Amino acid sequence: MDILLVASAFNSLSQRVYAQLSDHGHRVDVVLASHGDDAVRTAVRETRPELIIAPMLKTALPEEVWRDHTCLIVHPGPPGDRGPSSLDWAIAEQEPRWGVTVLQAEAAMDAGDIWAAVPCTVPSVGKSDLYRNDVADAAVSAVLLAVRRYADGSFKPQRQNDPSVRVVWRDAFRQERRRIDWERDTTETVLRKLRGADSQPGVLDELLGREVFLHGGHPEDRLRGRPGDLLATRAGAVCRATRDGAVWIPELRPRKSSGDPAPFRRPAASVLASFPAPSDPTTRGTQQGPSGVADRPPWLPEASVPLELPGDRHTWSPVRYRQKGDVGFVAFSFPGGAMSTDHCRRLLASYRYALTRPTPVLVLGGARDFFSNGIHLNVIEAAADPAGESWTNLNAMDDLVEAVLRTTDRLVVAALGGNAAAGGAMLALAADEVWCRRGSVINPHYRRMGLYGSEFWTYTLPRRVGPATADRLTSEALPISAEAAADLGMVDRLVPAAPQEFAAEVDRMAMSLAEDRDIDRRITGKEETRRRDEAARPLASYREAELARMHGIFFDPEAPYHALRSAFVRKTPGGSALPLSRAGEPVARDIRQPAPGPVG
After folding, report:
1. SS3 sequence, 414-470?
2. For the segment 520-571, what is each residue's pLDDT rounded down to a tens digit?
């Protein structure tokens, strides 16, 4: 069918629905509702869709659109659930199971007939992780079911006045409900509030006399202090004491009214470094990172933690190493999949540590959610010299990818429990094998942020998919499903596991790989292949050519990258971003914003 997606943003769920519908042979166009009703009306008039689907919509569709066409709305709640904050309530009320419902649009919000409903579990993870994974799995299943039912023509959607549907209206989940009482709330309560707002909107709080939004939360088992006190930093996060423990908060966002020139999410310690020190209001943090980025306030101690954590420890660290038999595991997880200069260097140090261990198999990746989205646009935007920080960050990313490419004494597996984009996708392709959870979305391109790209993509992508397909993927700049990536040769093994089961399945697969009788021959073959490829064209040559293109972009103040980066980070209209395209045809005429997720 010809299907039009109407979305407030081309976010992770919208991309996944787009990719899955395309895989099923449907012709899919996209229009952003955020560009106004006229844009939606124009897209409907020009594409003449058989069906309209709204995977993520914050505003109502124009009345003439839903009256004249069948419009299906994806609601992240079970049948009968109504209201704009469905997942927030599910997390706050500790619902063990939730669901996704596909409704027909009508005048009353979430009150339309039910075309499909699929349940899902609610694990103890952040709302954004839940949305991208467990909820997205259910949403795609529900959309595909609804589309099949619509195409069949005989299905009668269920009215919500059916006695079997329990209608519950839940109001918007406002900041007063999220507010943390550091003196009274337990650590468990604090974590639930933080996780329920980890991406948006954050939990409004006060630190050092400034209003900030707290984003994300993880438990800490040893550090203690007076409730509300800041105790330490680690890898950009800050630790804050609770009534009965402490929590790690990875990111902060200054409130816009605070006058902060960078009122967007970024590593918590760097935000605090821009605040006056508590003991001296005239002193500002001066621990400077690359290009003038303040890494952390000098008055807050850095809390070290071993790379190999004992099994009984409950603390936060973005990178960990563990060994199981003949397999080493370098697990990492960075908020939003964005990797700053510091993140890249920490991961590279951990990778080099893993190479000192005698394991024939090394697995690189997280347990669930984002693998990587490349360089950290938010940190770059906040830097005193964004061009310089872009350059430093990209080189740190290149150092990491090159280390993987030059590993010839073992097999390296990239395990993608979630989405990957741009430089993060190319990091995965540097491995010998790519294992990807079914349901993940891959964006193997840079174009929509106005970048040429680096991370050795001109070597790794063509060697897997061929030069013609590599050119098409990077120029079309469209998301592809894990299944499509496997068909193209970008993914070696699809992992049909639920998000919570992915890590255990990867463990099993990695142990089996290490026991493969052919593994010694494969490792020996790696060295021969590297020698042959190096003779044909050295890796340094690929890196030099890519970086030359990127240097020209970064240090050209008129390059579109700077406006696109700023628009993405500050959530303002993207202006001149290149539109999506399918084989040279316009697909999403109204998409002017870069794909979500820091990329590079």
Report:
1. EEECCCEEHHHHHHHHCCCEEEEECCCEEECCCHHHCCCCCCCHHHHHHHHHCHHHH
2. 999 999 999 999 999 999 999 999 999 999 999 999 999 999 999 999 999 8
The whole-number pLDDT of residue 569 equals 96
Q: Which of 20, 78, 359, 487 is nearest to 3 (CA)?
A: 20
List Cα–Cα distances, 64 to 34, 45, 121, in angstroms.
17, 12, 36
Residue pair 291/270 in contact by the 8 Å Cβ criterion? no
29: CB partners within 8 A, 6+ apart: 2, 3, 4, 5, 43, 47, 49, 587, 588
CB 318 within 8 A of CB 344: no
CB-based contact 62:95 (threshold 8 Å): no
- Spatial separation of the C-alpha atoms in residues 515 and 193, rounded to whole Å: 44
228: burial class by Cβ within 10 Å (0-12, 13-18, 19+)?
middle
Helix, strand, coil percentages, rounded to 5, for the chain: 40, 25, 40
pLDDT in tens, 270-293: 999 988 777 644 333 334 444 444
Q: How far is CA 409 from the centre of its chain?
A: 31
Residues 400, 406, 411, 414, CA torsion sign = positive
Residues 6+ apart with CB under 8 A from 108: none
The burial class, CB within 10 Å (0-12 / 13-18 / 19+), for 97 is exposed
* CATH fit for domain 319-582, picks 1.20.120.450, 3.30.360.10, 3.40.50.700, 3.90.226.10: 3.90.226.10
DSSP label at residue 81: E
CA 488 vs CA 163, 255, 440, 484: distances in Å: 48, 44, 15, 6
Give the mean pLDDT of 62-68: 96
Architecture of domain 180-296: Roll (3.10)
Phi/psi at 325 (5° precision) = 60, -125
The domain defined by 2-172 folds into Rossmann fold (3.40.50)
Specify whether the CB–CB gap between 397 and 377 falls below 8 A. no
The one-letter amino acid code at 285 reads G
Strands 218-220 vs 168-169: parallel, antiparallel or unpaired: unpaired
- Which pLDDT score is estimated for 581? 35
Rounded Cα distance, 168 and 149, in Å: 26
Domain extents in the chain: 2-172, 180-296, 319-582
**Residue 420 to residue 335: CA distance in whole angstroms:** 13
Burial 168-194 (b: 16+ CB within 10 A, else e): eebeebeeeebebeeeebebeebbbbb
Residue type, 587: V
- Alpha carbon 589 to chain centroid distance? 24
